[in-house]
Automatic annotation (TrEMBL):
<dbReference type="InterPro" id="IPR024169">
    <property type="entry name" value="SP_NH2Trfase/AEP_transaminase"/>
</dbReference>
<dbReference type="InterPro" id="IPR015424">
    <property type="entry name" value="PyrdxlP-dep_Trfase"/>
</dbReference>
<dbReference type="Pfam" id="PF00266">
    <property type="entry name" value="Aminotran_5"/>
</dbReference>
<feature type="binding site">
    <location>
        <position position="332"/>
    </location>
    <ligand>
        <name>substrate</name>
    </ligand>
</feature>
<keyword id="KW-0032">Aminotransferase</keyword>
<feature type="modified residue" description="N6-(pyridoxal phosphate)lysine">
    <location>
        <position position="190"/>
    </location>
</feature>
<dbReference type="GO" id="GO:0019265">
    <property type="term" value="P:glycine biosynthetic process, by transamination of glyoxylate"/>
</dbReference>
<dbReference type="GO" id="GO:0004760">
    <property type="term" value="F:L-serine-pyruvate transaminase activity"/>
</dbReference>
<dbReference type="InterPro" id="IPR000192">
    <property type="entry name" value="Aminotrans_V_dom"/>
</dbReference>
<protein>
    <submittedName>
        <fullName>Alanine--glyoxylate aminotransferase family protein</fullName>
    </submittedName>
</protein>
<keyword id="KW-0663">Pyridoxal phosphate</keyword>
<keyword id="KW-0808">Transferase</keyword>
<comment type="similarity">
    <text>Belongs to the class-V pyridoxal-phosphate-dependent aminotransferase family.</text>
</comment>
<dbReference type="InterPro" id="IPR015421">
    <property type="entry name" value="PyrdxlP-dep_Trfase_major"/>
</dbReference>
<feature type="domain" description="Aminotransferase class V">
    <location>
        <begin position="28"/>
        <end position="324"/>
    </location>
</feature>
<dbReference type="InterPro" id="IPR015422">
    <property type="entry name" value="PyrdxlP-dep_Trfase_small"/>
</dbReference>
<dbReference type="GO" id="GO:0008453">
    <property type="term" value="F:alanine-glyoxylate transaminase activity"/>
</dbReference>
Amino acid sequence: MKKRHLLAPGPTPVLPEALLAMARPILYHRGPEYEALLGRVREGLQFLFQTKNEVLVFTSSGTGGMEGAVVNTLSPGDRALVIRSGKFGERWGEICEAYGLQPSYIDVDWGRAVEPDTVAAALAADPSIKAVFATHTESSTGVLHDIETIARIVKKTPAILVVDAIMSLGVANLPMDAWGVDVVVGGSQKALMIPPGLAFCGVSDKAWVMVQRSRLPKFYFNFTAERKSLEKNQNSFTPAVSLVVALEQSLAAIKAEGLTALFARHDRLARATRAGVRALGLELFTERPTPALTAITAPPGIEAGAIVKRLRAAHGITISGGQAQLKGKIFRLAHLGYADESDVVVCLAALERTLIDLGYSLKLGEGVRAVQEVLAQAG
Ligand SMILES: *Cc1c(COP(=O)(O)O)cnc(C)c1O
């Protein structure tokens, strides 16, 4: 018998209360029970996004929310600026290009965070830019970008700031109203502790003005129509009812924990993981790590994929390797959502044994000890 541990950067383990709620008989999505539920979910999402505005809910993976953000804010010929520092930043560019836009790019070395000054310079060089597309946690490299500073820069221009926060919503602070972030995109299968299948878009007043003028084609991901439906506690089309039911549970759990405690928990798990990894003599892939996951450079002579494979086969632990140009070079341990101390202890313990099996020299317990030392500290 082997216990299985899902420690990949999404999907993540599902909250038990959400699993139970999903097992109940399905609700009719045009009935009073569902409408009351959606009312509670709308409030919970505003709490999580830290916004007074409506947070739109779509039945799709997170990328649907990203596509929605592009097609609802821009028009043919509009100038856009895309920050590319990994797989998900690239995705913003791919979506823009799929709709015929020709964005300018800020290309950042994978593993590094964008310098906010670069964004300021790009906006100053082209005042016609209508939207800046950024990523909060770039999951492919484990970097947390400085959205607060970037928002301060973009706020002073006519452009809107659109942020892919799919990996960091509920992990790291991103108060959209206070920082002035215009569109925040989230997804259900990361820190929200429910299965894949829902995308969320928080939209600022500044962005709504652009939504009203936007002329790119859209049908399913129509922000204006969806907001109108939500205001009546309805969805425009049949929603993933079971996931919305699960979402209510996860939002209640998040509210009960409180945002400050929620962010502190993730920060603590991330610090413990990084300490453990360093104690084993391994190198972190980035100097600006996200609290959502830890990206680690595979030691010389060991292919990252071999670590991933052996962790799963020998210890029942699922983590992720590198994507695209980082394939074989890094591996990624996630510690977000329904994750606590025991998860990072188990993960580091199994990582030690795995590395030994693959010929890396270390003393058993060195990593776990460093993890424990961080966890033993107050706070
Ligand atoms: C998971 C993730 C996505 C969404 O991917 P989907 O497969 O469409 O849900 C987008 N951006 C980031 C940063 C992610 O981590």
